[in-house]
Each structure stands twice: as structure tokens, then as C-alpha cells.
Write a structure and sequence with these properties.
heterodimer, A: 317 residues, mainly alpha, MetI-like fold, 2 domains, B: 437 residues, D-Maltodextrin-Binding Protein, domain 2, nine-stranded mixed β-sheet
């Protein structure tokens, strides 16, 4: 099996002349600003601006209305002493690692199965479906399915005569949230990974089969190396989206006016719970901002580390 | 040549887009409140347009416009109207009138002095009635609507009484002789259990509903204001009081004796209260909205009755809450808004909150729907106390993060009263020690 890897140090692709001097390049450069400025303005106004504002607010006590009072790093040190925040942090990391591992493991298995199946575009659509439907709708459906007299318990008691299982009680709620998260997200990653696997020429697999490679070996020596760039992007993508999971937990664990129990909060719910959330909101904007900034820093670091860990020379084929 | 022309056009289009977006942004930030004339005001309602209260208010607003010539711009925002108000307070686009439960208003705009003192409204005459507002809104509601300094931040128009609901058709004995003390109540529950019924319904996924039980038991034991004092103590020293332990043990025993309907800890609201309305459980401790909320699903012939939460000593006050109007300090048309408040409190208009929206009002001369007669009697006869003793509103962060989770564990039999006391004592001390934000 020979794979062409570009020699280190040489650019992989040449994009036009190094300093475009032709008429085309000049006019393209003239178009650069008008096209970039609108996006940049919006990005500054709606992403960078609010992030900087949150950083500033995080050093204050602020109820959202009165004047802000300087608080230094007190919000940050209070966070580490707050058991609810520590739980939220742990839950966020559990979602990232445990749900993430499950999502990628299931995605690989499904990829291997679906790759060789007939009608795979249909199956791909079915797998992708949970990702299209709003998480709020899914969480409501899950509530009906798993509640005390819900579908699952009814089926179990009809078929096996079992007592209803308290799927949604305090002990099981977070586990159900993890399972739900995996179920919602897997379809997306199957689709991404499948698209990458589809690019791999069939003869690699045929050759592996002839060499007597089993399914695991085909995954290990063909699929993974040849789709590694996509997988690493998908991993980064999951890391970022896991931090932002909000509505599934909120709607699955809570009710119209109430937050879910703090034991299942992740960091996004913590921010909401300390600012606007609940029947009687806390309005602790400084504290909520501090937690959001802390998570931003933590996840930025995580992503940098992850990118280094996942970096490989891409393989052309 | 043509190519260059086209590119120039693209560039022009891109620039136009930039400028348009800029203008759009500027337009959005401009004041669109349309203020100016005093003959109008803006009302952000806590009701959504299809709710019965919204229909009653909409009719009253239309009458008010006709009679006073003052235009009302109403937005049916729903329950997060106060959250939106909080964001609006830093802009020029502030509504002149809002409504909400008293603790939601006090939590958002009282502590930070963003409310208008409505004491003057008490002296206003209700148009068409030779009575002032003070004459129809009894002073017993002032504990909900005034600050410690006596400023009036709310004028109530709906009252919620919290009582223990049951079906008098199924439980005629209870109707004849409703339990008054906790011991009597425990006997009723034991009989219910012995006869193979589920004594109590509770949607345990709403931590606030579970909290009603424990908070009321504690404020009954310590007297009104006692539970509030207990949780505001930074040393958390009051939890070892034998009375407190006794009240907690009483609540814990409900779970221990399996008095709650199976599934109360693992269902989605309103599954359990619906089961109660279908006679699958006997009692439901709930606000006076219970008959309206469960009415359409109730068993045929269900006869809504209720009694006061049983006593643990001498306190027999009725846990209550009020919904009312408030005016933000920076409202431009406060006067017009106040005129509407007085207008709405006219007996004929306010009575529709009772006759059409099936809720209680602060006016004692308004007739109440049949299913609310018991709770109305309590409202008129008993002293009132704040539901959860005011803890939910004033210490919401503590309540949400420390008290409610532990309380759920107590009420699902996961921890004993002693473990509860140990954990809440530590949790409360830590909370107050870290409460710097």
C-alpha cells in the first residue's frame, strides 16, 4: 500500500502567484475590504463585543440594573467554593468525555456497518433525523417516553411484568441526559465521518480484505488514517458543541417556569440559572459572567491541547 | 471591459450592504417607544393573549381607552415580562406598567430601587365607584406589596391562597370534618393508605411544589417569618431546634410511609396532578389555580374543596401570594398607568378575574367561583403569611441551589431528617460564606 505524502517544508498547494501582480489579483484585493467589513462588523458587535463585556462584568457585582461594583477576582474564587458550580463543571466534562467517547464509538461502528449497506443514503437520513428536530421537541418526547407511566415502562410491564423503573428520578436523570445527548448528536457525526470514509477508494478496503484484515483492522489501518483530518475536525466540533448544550437539559429536566435540579446543570445552565433562570431569578450577572469566562478559557485550552494531540500529517490519496 | 464593470457592481453591492447593515443597526438602537404624549402608556403583561386573565384585562383596557381617551399600547409578553423589563431598564424603552407575582417584582426592581412608590394610588378614587383604592384593597395584603420602609411597589388585583385540595365527592368525611392539626391530617392519611388509596399527589419535578410542604411545615412551627429567619442566619444555627426537627420528621414520614403516589419523583408535570384530578390520589397542596388547571381533566362529578395546611402549633395563617401592577421608576407615563390601575379595581371589572378567569381577587365584596369558596373563606378569616415564608423570592439563589435539592432528597426518602439538618447546616454556612456576588 503506497501512500503519497507531500515532502515536509513544501507547500501542499500553490494558490496563484505569491504576490499577485496581475489585473485579476489587484481587483480581487480591492474587493477584499467590502466583503470582509460587514462580517467583521457583525462579528465584533455580536461576538467579540459581548465577550469582552462579559469579561468586564465578571469582575463586578451587578444585578443588571444598578451601577456595577468592582469585585476583583472575588466572583472567580467564589465559583471554586460553590458546590453547584463544581457539579456543573464536572457535568460539562462528563458530557464532553463520556458522551463524546460514546458518540464517536457508535459513529465508527455505524459507519462501518452503513458503508457496506444498500440504501445507505436512506439510513443516513434516518440516523441524521434526531439532529434536525429541535432538541426541545425531543426532550418533551423523551419525557413522555421515560416518565413513570411512559411508553417504556408500559411496554416493560406488559411484556415482562416489571415494576415501573424511575428513569427520571434524581439518581437517573443525568444518565438519561447523557444518553439523550448521544442519541441526538450521533447522527451528525456518522454523517460527517461517513462522508470522509466515502472518499476513500474502495481498492484500499479490497486490498485489506485480500490481506485478511478483519473489521477492526480495516478501521485501524485504512479508515482511521485516511479520514483522520475529518475526524480531528469533528472532535474539535464536538468539544465546542458539548460546551453549548443547553436546551435538551433545560427542557428535559425542567418545566415551564423551573430550572432542572442543580445536580444535572452543565456550565451553560449554570450561567442561565445564576442570571435569568427559574421562577425567581438570581440576577447575579457578575457571577454568571465569571463562570462563562472561566469555561471559555478552559475550553479554549482544551481545544488547543486537542488540536496538538490530533495533529497528523494529512495523507493524500 | 464587461468583466471590470461587473466587478465594480459587485463591489458597489457589497458597500451598499455594509451601509445598509450600519443603518439597520442604528435604526434598531433608536428609541422606538414613540413616547411624548401623556395620553398614552405602555403595558407589558405577564399573561399571554389567550389566557383568561389576558381576556379580562384586554376588555378592561378597551373600556379604559374609550372612557379616558388614553391610548394603551399593550404587549402580552408572558411570565418573563419582568426579565425583559430588567434588560429594558437600561434603555429608554421602558414600559409604564407591568404585572407579576409580588416576589418576582420585588426580586427584580425593589432591592435596586427601580420601582415607583404607588402609595398615592391608595388615595385615588375608583372611577364609577365612590370609594378609594385603599377602601377596597384590605391592609392584610400590604405585607406582600410594601417594602420594609413602607413604600408601595405593587397594587394587587389577584390573590393566590395555598391550601390542600381534595374531591369532596370521594372524601365526604374529610369535607364534613377537615383536619386541622398535623396529627389529625396524619390520621386521615393513614386511613387513606389503609384503604388502598394513594394519599398525596405531588409533581416532584417541580422543586418549588415540593418546597411548599416543607416550607409551610417549618413556618407553621416557627411562626410566620421563622423559616425566613432560619435560612438567613449565616451561622445556620437554628436547624437543631427540636421543633424544626419535628417538622422535618413529619415531612420525611410522608415519604417513609409511602403516602406519595408512585412515580411522584419520576414524572413530568402535570402528570401527577392530573392523576389526582382523576381520583388516583387524595390530596394536593397547591395554589388556588388548581381547579382551573386541572378542571378539564377531572373525573366526572369531581367536587373541588380544600382546607388550610394543618397546624404544628398555634400558627394557622393561610400561605398566600398576590399578583398585581407595578410601575417602573423611569416610566414616562406613570400617571396614565396609575389611572388604569384604579379603573381596573372597579368591582364590576375586577370581578371578572373571579367569574371569567376563576381566580381570587383582593376585594372581599367580589363573589367567588364555587370551587374557591373554601380557600376564599380562609382568605377572609385567617391572617395571611407568605408562601415559602418569602424565602423563594428573597433568597432565590440559596433556595434553588441549597434548600430545594436537599428538600427533594428528604421528600423522596433519600436522606433522614438528621442528615438533612447536617447537610443544610453545612450548605447554608458555605453558601453565605461564599455569597459575595
Amino acid at each position: 500500500m503506497t501512500l503519497a505524502t507531500p515532502p515536509v517544508g513544501e507547500p501542499r498547494h500553490r494558490r496563484g502567484s505569491p504576490r499577485g501582480t496581475g489585473a485579476f489579483d489587484r481587483s480581487r484585493r480591492r474587493l477584499y475590504l467590502p466583503f470582509v467589513v460587514p462580517a467583521l462588523v457583525l462579528y465584533l458587535a455580536f461576538v467579540i463585543g459581548p465577550t469582552l463585556a462579559a469579561l468586564w462584568i465578571s469582575f463586578h457585582r451587578w444585578d443588571g440594573v444598578s451601577d456595577m461594583r468592582w469585585n476583583g477576582l472575588d466572583n472567580y474564587s467564589a465559583l471554586f467554593d460553590d458546590p453547584t458550580f463544581r457539579t456543573a463543571l464536572a457535568n460539562t466534562l462528563i458530557i464532553l468525555v463520556v458522551a463524546g467517547a460514546a458518540i464517536f464509538a457508535i459513529s465508527f461502528v455505524l459507519t462501518m456497518i452503513v458503508r457496506e449497506m444498500r440504501g445507505r443514503s436512506f439510513i443516513r437520513s434516518v440516523l441524521f433525523f434526531p439532529h434536525i428536530v429541535s432538541a426541545i421537541v425531543l426532550s418533551i418526547v423523551w419525557g413522555f417516553i421515560f416518565e413513570h407511566n411512559g411508553t417504556v415502562n408500559t411496554i416493560l410491564s406488559t411484556v415482562f411484568g416489571t415494576e415501573p423503573i424511575p428513569w427520571l428520578n434524581a439518581d437517573n436523570l443525568f444518565l438519561m441526559i447523557l444518553i439523550g445527548t448521544v442519541w441526538i448528536s450521533t447522527g451528525l457525526y456518522v454523517t460527517i465521518i461517513l462522508a470522509a470514509v466515502d472518499r476513500i477508494p474502495r481498492y484500499f478496503y479490497e486490498e485489506a480484505l485480500l490481506a485478511g484484515a478483519n473489521a477492526y483492522q480495516r478501521l485501524r489501518f485504512v479508515t482511521l488514517p485516511l479520514s483522520w483530518d475529518v475526524i480531528s475536525v469533528a472532535a474539535i466540533f464536538w468539544t465546542i458543541s458539548s460546551l453549548k448544550i443547553f436546551e435538551f437539559i433545560y427542557a428535559f429536566g425542567g418545566t415551564t417556569n423551573d430550572m432542572p435540579p442543580p445536580a444535572v446543570w452543565n456550565s451553560a445552565l449554570f450561567v442561565y440559572g445564576e442570571s435569568f433562570g427559574g421562577r425567581s431569578p438570581s440576577y447575579l450577572f457578575g457571577y454568571a459572567s465569571a463562570s462563562a469566562i472561566l469555561m471559555l478559557v478552559l475550553f479554549t485550552a482544551l481545544i488547543v491541547v486537542l488540536r496538538r494531540l490530533l495533529r497528523r500529517d494529512s495523507i493524500e490519496f | 471591459m464587461q468583466m471590470r464593470y461587473r466587478r465594480r457592481r459587485v463591489r458597489a453591492a457589497a458597500l451598499t450592504l455594509t451601509v445598509t447593515l450600519g443603518l439597520f443597526g442604528a435604526a434598531c438602537s433608536a428609541d422606538d417607544s414613540g413616547g411624548g404624549s401623556a395620553q398614552q402608556f405602555t403595558y407589558w403583561s405577564m399573561w399571554q393573549e389567550k389566557e383568561p386573565q389576558a381576556k379580562v384585562l384586554a376588555k378592561a383596557l378597551a373600556d379604559f381607552e374609550k372612557e379616558s381617551g388614553i391610548k394603551v399600547k399593550v404587549e402580552w409578553q408572558g411570565r418573563d415580562n419582568v426579565t425583559k423589563l430588567l434588560a429594558a431598564l437600561r434603555t429608554d424603552d421602558v414600559p409604564d406598567l407591568i404585572d407579576q407575582q409580588y416576589f418576582t417584582v420585588s426580586n427584580a426592581i425593589v432591592k435596586n430601587d427601580q420601582f415607583k412608590d404607588l402609595s398615592d394610588v391608595h388615595d385615588m378614587e375608583i372611577p364609577g365607584e365612590s370609594k378609594t383604592v385603599r377602601q377596597v384593597i384590605p391592609e392584610k395584603y400590604d405585607q406582600f406589596t410594601t417594602t420594609a420602609n413602607g413604600a408601595q411597589f405593587l397594587i394587587p388585583y389577584e390573590v393566590i391562597g395555598y391550601s390542600i385540595w381534595y374531591d369532596a365527592k370521594t372524601l365526604p368525611d374529610v369535607a364534613d370534618n377537615p383536619p386541622k392539626t398535623w396529627q389529625e391530617f396524619a390520621d386521615v392519611l393513614a386511613r387513606s393508605k389503609a384503604s388502598g388509596r394513594n394519599p398525596i399527589a405531588l409533581d416532584g419535578d417541580i422543586a418549588g411544589y415540593a418546597e411548599f410542604w416543607t416550607a409551610t411545615a417549618l413556618s407553621r412551627t416557627l411562626g410566620p417569618g421563622g423559616f425566613y429567619k432560619l435560612v438567613s442566619d449565616k451561622q445556620a444555627s437554628g436547624w437543631n431546634n427540636p421543633g424544626v426537627r419535628n417538622a422535618l420528621a413529619a415531612i420525611a414520614s410522608l415519604a417513609k410511609q409511602k403516602y406519595f403516589i408512585p412515580g411522584y419523583d419520576s414524572s413530568k408535570f402535570p402528570a401527577i396532578q392530573t392523576k389526582w384530578a382523576q381520583n388516583q390520589a387524595d390530596f394536593l397542596y397547591m395554589g388556588s389555580w388548581a381547579p382551573t388547571e386541572t378542571g378539564t381533566l377531572a373525573a366526572p362529578g369531581f367536587k373541588y374543596r380544600s382546607f388550610n395546611f394543618p397546624t404544628f402549633g398555634s400558627d394557622e395563617s393561610l400561605p398566600a401570594s398576590v399578583i398585581g401592577f407595578a410601575v417602573p421608576k423611569s416610566a414616562d407615563h406613570a400617571e396614565a398607568a396609575q389611572k388604569f390601575i384604579a379603573h381596573f379595581l372597579h368591582k364590576e371589572r375586577l370581578s371578572k378575574i373571579s367569574s371569567e378567569a376563576n381566580n381570587l381577587t383582593p376585594r372581599s365584596d367580589v363573589e367567588v367561583p364555587e370551587q374557591l369558596e373554601d380557600v376564599n373563606e380562609l382568605l377572609q378569616e385567617k391572617k395571611l403569611s407568605k408562601i415559602t415564608d418569602g424565602v423563594l423570592g428573597d433568597f432565590s439563589d440559596f433556595d434553588k441551589k441549597v434548600f430545594q435539592p436537599l428538600n427533594l432528597q428528604l421528600m423522596t426518602g433519600k436522606i433522614t431528617p438528621d442528615e438533612f439538618i447536617d447537610q443544610i447546616t453545612t450548605g447554608q454556612r458555605d453558601f453565605w460564606a461564599g455569597h459575595r456576588s
